[in-house]
Amino acid sequence: MWKTKQKLQPNASEALKGEDGYTFLAKGVVIEGIAKLEGIVRIDGHFNGAINTNDTLIIGEQAVIRGSITADEIICSGKIEANLTAIKRIHLLKPAVVIGDISTPCFTMEDGVLFQGQCDMGMSSKIEWLSKDSQVTEKMPALIPHGELVSTS
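Request: output the structure for the sequence above.
Response:
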């Protein structure tokens, strides 16, 4: 009858241990340098430099990041002036502002997001492969001048 209640959420020290761990950079915190992080990362502060994580990077509305970002997945609703690279996907949520190039196989952006830069979704190798298929090149003469593609690499 008087048993202790089961914890619904781990406390901060427990959450930072093991596979359920995450890293949090709070609003008002300013950091410069190179951050190599593991696990889920959420940033609501200011960061100048390079961020590298092997998991999901969540960038909150109050966050301001300048530099470069590499992650498995990036979810952003803050302000970024950086090049972004994600292995799985990048998702920009309103009211995000991103100035920089994006490289990812899956990219989504909500209405109201401001994005200035180039987006590479890994098509260069696929376009080269398609150019070797004569049926494809015959159907897309406007996209493939003279039936050939020139590699940009």
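The longest strand covers residues 79-92.
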